[in-house]
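README: folding subset

This subset contains proteins for which both the sequence and a predicted structure token string are available. Records are stored as plain text. Below is the entry for DDE Tnp4 domain-containing protein (138 residues), shown exactly as it appears on disk.
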Amino acid sequence: MAVVDANLQFITIDVGAYGKEGDSNVFKNSNFGKLLYSDKLDLPEPALLPETESNPQPYVFIGDEAFALHTHLLRPYPGRNLTDIRRVFYYRLSRARRMVEYAFGVLANKWRVLHTPIQVEPDFTDDKGMLCLTQFRT
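--- output ---
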């Protein structure tokens, strides 16, 4: 699980969760998730969007449908019958989420070992994953 910025840089990472655990549980139990949901992350104050003069908006992270809503966490609208406005929102949110997927793709192509299951002890796999992520530069 990772937070990636618009420049494909990994901001925070959490390795060691097993594939059978859902993303929402992995996130909720990670240090980052605990800080976010308890409002203890040192995030900037809400800011005005470009070309607006009122109604400052909070800084947000983007998750998928599995994540719980939070002031600082956006996720797609549930359901399939979306209004045009919600469909546009969903499209833009999905484009932003793809940046994380793209960053992992670039990472996996740089470190080919990440393309296949790693047949070693879990603790060693965690170390290997952390090493790949800390040495990664786009």
